[in-house]
Fold:
Amino acid sequence: MAEHAALPYLSETILFLVLAGVLIPLLEKRSINPVLGFLAVGTVVGPYGLGALAADYPALAHVSFTRSDHVATFAELGVVFLMFTIGLEMSVERLWAMRRQVFGGGGAQVLLSTALITGIAAAWGHSSEAAVILGLVLAFSSTAVVMQLLSQRRDLGTPLGRASFSILLFQDLAVVPLLVLIGIMGQRAPAEGFLVLLAGAAIKGVLTVAAIYLLGRRVVRPMFGHLASTRAPDTFTALTLLASLGVAALTWAAGLSMAMGAMLAGLIIAETEFRHEVEVTIEPFKGLLMGLFFMSVGMGIDLRALLEHPLMVPLSVAGLMLLKGVILFVLLRAMGLSWGRATEGGILLSQGGEFAFIVIGVAMHTALLPEPIGHFMLLVVGLSMLATPLASRVGRRLGDRIDAHLGRHDTVEEVGSDQIEGHVIVAGCGRVGEMIGQILARHRVRHLALDSDAKLVERLRKRGVDAYFGDASRPELLRRLALDRARAVILTLGDEAAVSRAVGGIRRLAPEVCIVARSRDEAHAMALRHAGADAVIPETLETGLQLAGATLARLGLAEEDIRQSLDQERLLRIERVHEPLPIAAASRPEAGPEEHTR
Structure:
């Protein structure tokens, strides 16, 4: 597309906004993953798609990108904001607790993958330099794709999410030594020079990160505190952008990656009380720029090369994902994941990474890698990233089937050998779930608690509560808590979609168990009733009644009149939610009124 004289990239920006605001939502309505949608759209409208036809058909220049570098800069910002939000969800204590997974699991994955891929490349006749470069760069996975998928599935807090993050974090930390290695190989430096430069880069990186972190902790909180007191949302937004991009620029100036700096900025802010406000502020920027990133990756995929190598390209993509998948499966099993979750993780992390587009470009520029080989490997990496969203769905279903067949799950411990029965499962142990557990304990009703917050579970277990770690929105995990022998399941999850999935899954696994669920409002309550819940309590109901009662009391009405009015309204609304469902809409035969109140 032609550049605008006054505002560069104006046409490209408008076209992207059209794609992001109109086309992508249409794809989402058809259950097409947004990551896959952006990758596919980038391939179609990129320089190797419609852009290649613009010379012969000028009209296509208005609906295509003729040069992928027109969006490359914005795409890099997308990765920066992704890493910034990841840092917001982490903490220094949590990273320190994960050090064995990061340096043990992540280090082993990079070393094993590099060694095997280097050996295969050398066996195909590549030079030693080219084989080492290919081995190193293909050992890396796509942080952007994997973390986006885990975030969409709300799996970042699960054992699989933590293990995946550990491996990806080590890969990000290994970026600096790899860049130094490429530079040294390009200069043909002697061996002793290589070791000195590599050690110097590592020391400089550690000192830079430590200095920025210690300085940031002393500067960021007072700055955000001052701006928050002014109640100026525009300046708060500006400071948020400055914090993320500023720290990223500092690490880039020090020779480290911008992504590492952005994650460091997120870690600094995560330890302040402004964390959640910053998350809300940055979310729109992250989504749009991540879309640009995935589109730019799609623009680098030249599908015409498939015509030149119709067999070799698909085999190379499959071979890369199979090789890395097997290595990752073994390591994830060693890190404590179940067979099913290790299988899912191996497939999820088996693609090439976005860093390959930078390293292979540098290697071709320094003549370390022949251009035909470089372009071929870029196509392989791009297609593997394009295949990841679909492959991750297959991996998840396959992992669930494997765990269901073996009766094993990595996220929930064994209940015990006493074969408990007649208990109550409380899924979600926040303030509401914890209060319910205390009431059940007071009446000597045995209950098992399930939550995805490891610290909360640890605190409950120290109090003597029979609590277990796991994602309560996955009904298969409840089976490990003797779901088929439970008297009832209480769902207090705040995520509407998660509660709906849990109700439907529990009803399929245990048709006779009583399900009591918390809902957002009455509309959500009716949806849960249709999904199979026996009793649903809208959280807005009691809040509204209490507000109305307090207002009537201040207006001077008698306490008894207020109580009767509120009781009548409560009964009316609960009966409306729990009125018998049509048999066609119910997931099982409707229980009688007495069963609803048991």
Summary: The chain has a mean pLDDT of 77. The first strand starts at residue 424 and ends at 427. The CA atoms of residues 177 and 200 lie 10 Å apart.
